[in-house]
Amino acid sequence: MHIENLVHMLNQIEAFFAAEEDRDVAIEGIRNHVARFWEKRMRDRILAHLAAGGEGIGPLARAALEHLAQPKVA
Amino acid sequence: MQSRHDHDFGTPASPSTESVTLTIDGMTVTVPAGTSIMRAAAGAGVMVPKLCATDSVDPFGSCRLCLVEIEGRRGFPASCTTPCEGGLQVRTQSSKLAELRKGVMELYISDHPLDCLTCATNGNCELQDMAGTVGLREVRYGYEGLNHLGSQKDESNPYFTYDPSKCIVCSRCVRACEEVQGTFALTIDGRGFESRVAAGANENFLDSECVSCGACVQACPTATLAEKSIIQMGQPDHSVVTTCAYCGVGCSFHAEMQGDRVVRMVPWKDGKANHGHSCVKGRFAWGYATHPDRITKPMIRERITDPWQEVSWDEALQYAARRFKAIQEQHGRESIGGITSSRCTNEETYLVQKLVRAVFNNNNVDTCARVCHSPTGYGLKYTLGESAGTQDFDSVLESDVIMVIGANPTDGHPVFASLMKKRLRQGARLIVVDPRQTDIVRSAHVEAQHHLKLRPGTNVAIVNALAHVIVTEGLVDEAFVAERCEPASFDKWRAFVARENNSPEALEAITGVPADEVRQAARLFATGGNAAIYYGLGVTEHAQGSTTVIGIANLAMATGNIGRRGVGVNPLRGQNNVQGSCDMGSFPHELPGYRHVSDDTARALFGKEWGVTLQEEPGLRIPNMFEAALDGSFKGLYVEGEDIVQSDPNTQHVIAAMESLECLVVQDIFLNETAMYAHVFLPGSSFLEKDGTFTNAERRISRVRKVMPPLAGKADWEVTQALAQAMGYDMNYQHPSEIMDEIARLTPTFHGVSYDKLERLGSVQWPCNDEAPEGTPTMHIDEFVRGKGYFGLTEYVPTDEKVTRKFPLLLTTGRILSQYNVGAQTRRTANNAWHSEDRIEIHPHDAEERGIADGDWVGITSRAGQTVLRATVSQRMQPGVVYTTFHFPESGANVITTDNSDWATNCPEYKVTAVQLTRVSQPSEWQANYKRFASQQIGLLKAAEARAKV
Ligand code: SF4
Ligand code: SF4
Ligand code: SF4
Ligand code: FES
Fold first, then answer.
1. Which of A15, A18, A36 is opposite residue B589, by nearest beta carbon?
2. Residues B536, B572 contacting (CB under 8 angstroms)
3. What domain range is A52 assigned to?
């Protein structure tokens, strides 16, 4: 799992949900998407990256990952 | 000639709902108004002699064999062109009629070679039959007059011959080419005695416009147009109805057989997807099934540099099971996975995902839909609530406006394209959104009103611009939206698309499409009557593939074009069973029937039936598998009927992932590119060798029927079952029908499906359950599957794959009519006569700038790699855009495509790669390496075969 790829994918997801003006709805959208479609290895890796500063991760995606700490699908 | 197993009513059925009653030979007959007397008689069991009529084309009334008498009317009207009227009293037999018919037959036969005994259609020739029916015993004119017996045969088409000496100039072929196929390749050349059928202007069939669909051959009542396979082998002794294994149209065919040998495939008239039509692939390109390259023995090897060793089934399966188990013990449960195939049956796909979920006990299962229509699944579920197209194919006959986005139906979905062209000839209007001038934009009697020739990668911008016009010009179907859609989502969407930055004028610089053209197209779409959208991989295979699908669904909902016939959102699915493989739970996050693995109820249901506890975590998708393999956490893969090395993007990356696996098990009919990296090869079976079902693009489930035993002894479902057993799981189906029964038990949309029902109805469209026992041709009629329709916001985000000075051109990829995807099947047929290499298409302007002439070798370099192809200089391209197909492995088309993918599904961005082209004199380094590696692997295979022989 190249972290650059995961960050890139995450930011692409962010770009879609960012069209939503309600920030909370956008964050929830990103969080759900990652929870529903990303395998555990990918989530673990991106969360580890976040814990290490999360370089490159967009602001909404960052907030979404913080909600993902407990990765149970909504 | 047509199949002897199809009944010919002489003229097409009348669509009228009113009926008329008349008498025919004293029998009272009631038929829909507008039915011909010939057809009414045939329905009552009276076969009026005929030659120029057949029920696939409109009557022409030229042969005068079908004459009848009508009480109170003078003369002898032709029954094929005379419609029934209430109260008519018709006689089909009288001594006068008999005499007239004999006279007609005498004329035909006097100019016909009398070599019936050695003629290819002996036993299935309408001319012969008619001579018998009218009781022809002598030909008064003799055979010495002017005739055509010396005419030259045209044998240029690889699959059929044209022998003018046998032609009776009935023009059935000409009409079939026009009305059924819509190609208009044939004409009747000359007048009177001189008249003959001609393909184009003094061309042979192969060089003409003919696309070898076979419609004319089927329509021909004589041996004039005849399949070469029939000429070679003779007439079939029995026939079995089955389903084509190529594209997502899912045509039904009679497999006409001599014992267990196929003699020909003829489209089945009662097939609901194709109504008796076909394309060159399904009709003729089936020879691969018995090609000498077929591998029929299981093989194993320790390392991929070792020679293959032929072993028994048992040994191969035990070996695979042992290695998979060892990997899981050492690297954990999640270290192995499987890939299901859209070429295989529903039952086989279901078993592979069951193997992964119940036996590997993880969710690492994915399918080739990942690389084609996964965004369709996502986008349609997001907006409408179901991951499937909304209509049946016939719905297009009620469309007034047809919008084709990113699809090339005449090449990719030819039989559906013929239906669409028929509707267009009847006056429906066409909008095409495509970077290229595909054939549907302008062909015989078809011309798009608007061709929005956008830059690759700007679909979302175009869809937003169309939506902007609809919203700001007051073209929304407010009543539909108010009743059927979520108001909050609609309000947000309306405000979003109405923004100035989504106007056609603002987006013109991005899309390259004149704003006025977009405005006109939007108005036509919203106000032109029933409007239907058909789309393909040109929509999905982008970084914003899912967004475009959402945008398309928004357009349909906003204009009220969903939930009835003639409208809808229609993904044209690539492979025969791509819909089915998705339905069957091939995705790592979904159980069969699209239920998320985190859904406790669904998981418990499957877990109980399978006797295991299932995992709730989504598994790896194909590209994630590659990444995990390169990471060292994914070590074993079971691939059924898919060639990821050739078909997935960034080949070098895929190969590196394959090389890192400890155990790759490939199940296929040929040693495909992926198998060259395998440790275990399990021989697969073609569609002719097994029972099962395929589900086409209109959700239609059709039977696949076994016509010959599997060459390697096992059908694919039996192999998967045996692998599960070898791994210690008790899987014991006796027949695929039992697998379907299990699917039906566990999947609400399939509750009503069974082999018995398929036998009875021919085919059925899911959802098929208590609410819709005979299936569902049109979805979302009264409400959407998700309840209210959801409008998603579709912000245009430019792809990262941008043109630069170094890579100034955009490459887009696609497929053509005669070849199919990775070409493993079609390359092993005579279809190579039409396309024997992949070429790079380039606009004359770009070619000239680079000193490239037609036929030159051209190096294509992208950020991912380099390959070399020959150039075709073509006006079909727009400047700045180049195009290639990907049917030949040595082309290395995917060496240049990149890892970029759809944000939601990881579907690769095949349709946009920034490249540079230069003239070169030799193949690329990758190609040279490929050639070496491939020949080494073939060597290892041959060595195994040779050793097995001694
Ligand atoms: S094979 Fe098809 S396209 Fe070719 S001439 Fe016959 S009907 Fe027309
Ligand atoms: S080729 Fe066959 S179908 Fe065509 S005009 Fe001649 S006899 Fe009729
Ligand atoms: S249109 Fe598709 S399903 Fe029909 S014959 Fe051609 S390849 Fe087969
Ligand atoms: S069949 Fe009616 S005129 Fe030929």
1. A36
2. yes
3. 3-69
